[in-house]
Design a protein that fits this description.
Blueprint: H1 3-41, E1 46-54, E2 63-69, H2 78-88, E3 93-96, E4 105-111, E5 116-117, H3 121-135, E6 144-150, E7 153-160, E8 163-167, E9 173-174, H4 181-187, E10 204-208, E11 211-217, E12 246-258, E13 263-272, E14 276-278, H5 282-296, E15 302-309, E16 317-325, E17 332-350
Parallel strand pairs: 2-3, 4-6, 11-12, 13-15
Antiparallel strand pairs: 1-2, 1-17, 3-4, 4-5, 6-7, 7-8, 8-17, 9-10, 10-11, 12-13, 13-14, 15-16, 16-17
């Protein structure tokens, strides 16, 4: 075969081989992409979840919480998180990010059925107890330290068994304009026949930006039972500039107070038009405790609070709060939220 003819044939064969290899690469890439798309759309894709009852040591009491473990190397978008929270239909659902190189630090996202929250109490306590007793720990009796990263900031906590104590983020603000008593009565008509002692305007208090409560003091524990669920929201709320946020009324009655020990026992109910009644509200309990401690105003002192909630709805909850005032007595130095939780269920959530 002449050299020129051989070279042309060899060149043609080389082009054919390159085209063939390119074809197989394209086919292979297309096939791999198809597999990826199929995997993403596969009806059996799932994430692990658990549910706990928080601020109680007894199942089917306290405040239910769902914790969804985020898949490693993947991210659930905000829309999907809201849909999952609506599926559980609890007051809050936690999305627990995968563990990083720091075993004792985890990031969480907290969602209601309609929005993300910067911080909430019972999701914090429930997640800490879960981390201590199953997700990251083999010894549930050992005292352990964890840091939870929330949108409101880091939460440093100690856990032992089914009990957690968390030094929570706080930026306590008593807003300048209290809520008129009439606005509370409009939301709770059962209070219309109340005695004159009810007429005081109600303080509007934020524990952090984004979590605000109307603190409504009632003179007797029995008055809490007269409150109704499903009424309108409390109107005439005027936040300080830049502090607009989720706001709910928190009704309370002081059961007892030991001034020498700086301890107070309180019964409460949290009823909000869009949420309904909450069995236990750690953020509201923290706001109330901070407010009551500030009213006592002893510089540098620590006040402790035992708060009962959920009694009227059959989900008795016990919340512990300690508030330490700063050296002037006019600000809050530290807020520690404490409580128990028990595991109720676990399984897979199919996406």
């Amino acid at each position: 075969m002449p050299y020129t003819t051989y070279k042309l044939c060899h060149l043609a064969q080389t082009k054919a081989n390159v085209a063939s290899q390119l074809h197989y690469k394209i086919i292979g890439h297309t096939f791999a992409s198809s597999l990826l798309i199929m995997a993403q759309a596969h009806p059996n894709a799932s994430v692990r979840y658990v549910t706990l009852d928080v601020f109680t040591r007894e199942r089917f009491k306290g405040n239910p919480l769902a914790i969804v473990e985020m898949p490693l190397g993947a991210e659930l978008n905000q829309h999907t998180k809201k849909r999952i929270a609506r599926e559980f239909n609890f007051s809050e659902t936690v999305f627990l990010h995968p563990r990083s190189s720091e075993v004792s630090r985890r990031t969480i996202d907290i969602f209601t059925t309609t929005q993300e929250l910067p911080f909430a109490g019972h999701p914090t306590i429930g997640t800490l107890v879960y981390l201590c007793n199953g997700a990251d720990s083999a010894d549930e009796h050992k005292t352990q330290s964890f840091t939870l990263q929330t949108k409101a900031g880091p939460i440093v906590a100690n856990t032992s068994g089914h009990i957690a104590e968390a030094s929570i983020p706080h930026n306590v603000r008593i807003h300048k304009t209290p809520v008129p008593w009439q606005s509370v009565v409009n939301a709770q008509p059962s209070l219309r026949s109340a005695e004159a002692g009810y007429s005081t305007p109600c303080p509007l208090v934020s524990i952090v930006k984004g979590m605000t409560f109307v603190l409504v003091e009632l003179p007797r524990v029995e008055d809490l039972a007269a409150l109704t669920v499903g009424g309108p929201h409390v109107d005439s709320v005027e936040w300080d500039q830049g502090w607009e946020s989720f706001t709910a009324p928190y009704f309370y009655a002081i059961v007892s107070e030991d001034e020498e020990a700086r301890h107070m026992a309180v019964r409460v109910r949290m009823i909000e038009s869009t949420v309904g009644e909450d069995p236990a509200t750690g953020s509201a309990a923290s706001a109330l405790s901070a407010y009551l401690a500030l009213q006592r105003g002893t510089a540098g002192s620590t006040y402790s609070f035992s708060i009962e909630q959920g009694v009227e709805m059959g989900r008795h909850s016990e919340i512990g709060v300690k508030v330490t005032l700063n050296d002037s007595g006019e600000g809050v130095q530290d807020v520690v939220l404490a409580g128990s939780a028990v595991l109720v269920s676990e399984g897979k959530l199919y996406l």
